[in-house]
Amino acid sequence: MAKESEFNTLTEIFERNIKQILNNRESFLPLFIKNFSDGHREYVNYIDQVFKVIQSVEENSTIKSDKRIIKLCEEYVDEFSKMYLSHIYV
């Protein structure tokens, strides 16, 4: 039997995977670039703000996502993220 999704919203699924990708890409940056990377910090803050807005809209929406749709989306996004991350590590 398929495992139940641990997420309640589609935003949570995308947020987890995008942050995982950002963190893995960041681990390949040399330390001297990280220390002076105000642009990168602003980008990460921007991503956080976007997810907060989307989550707020999703929570206040009268249309609720079906658990099956959330599970299907989670599986798709997880597979896409795994594929993308496998190319980063190569």
Q: Can you walk me through this structure?
A:
The structure is a single chain. By secondary structure, this protein is mostly helical. It has one domain. Helices cover 76% and strands 0% of the residues. It is built from four helices and no strands. Helix 1 runs antiparallel to helix 3 and helix 1 runs parallel beside helix 4. The protein is flat and about 45 Å long. The mean pLDDT is 78.
Number of strands: 0
Low-pLDDT segments, ≥5 res: none
Report how far the terminal alpha carbons are from each other. Answer: 34 Å
Largest sheet: none
Strand percent estimate: under 5%
* Total domain modules: 1
Total helices: the number is 4
Could you outline the blueprint of secondary structure elements for this entry?
Elements: H1 10-26, H2 31-35, H3 38-60, H4 67-89
List key phrases describing it:
mainly alpha; 90 residues
Short description:
By secondary structure, the chain is mainly alpha-helical.
